[in-house]
Design brief:
Number of helices: 0
Number of strands: 5
Strand content: 35-45%
Structural class: mainly beta
Helix content: under 10%
Largest sheet: 5 strands, mixed
Mean pLDDT: 79
Strand order of the largest sheet: 2-1-5-4-3
Low-confidence stretches: 94-102
Length: 102
């Protein structure tokens, strides 16, 4: 697997550059979660960093590099990508039996 040295901004990792594994598309993950163990033995605190563009080319305005920005809210999102997978979305009340009458 390939990795890329990626800078981190904000939060406890501010100013650090860490190697991040790249996905199949050659990009680092959109959200990077760092578990920090609790000193008292409790559940770990999870720091959340989001991928943002670091640089664009001057001539064509194309993407050149990524960096991670600290997300203090720590909201990792629901992971749902499509509107029909949301609770209460278009197909939330649709069942195979409800379409049998049509």
């Amino acid at each position: 697997m390939k990795s890329e040295d990626t800078p981190f901004e904000g939060g406890p990792l501010d100013g650090r550059v860490l190697p991040v594994l790249l996905g199949l598309t050659g990009h680092p993950p959109k959200v990077y979660r760092v578990p920090v163990p609790d000193a008292d033995g409790g559940p770990p605190t999870v720091l959340v960093y989001r991928r943002v563009q670091a640089r664009v080319s001057k001539r064509l305005g194309l993407h050149q590099a990524w960096k991670y920005a600290y997300d203090p809210s720590g909201d990792a999102g629901s992971g749902r990508k499509w509107p029909w997978s949301k609770p209460g979305g278009k197909s939330a009340g649709a069942t195979p039996e409800s379409h049998a009458d049509e």
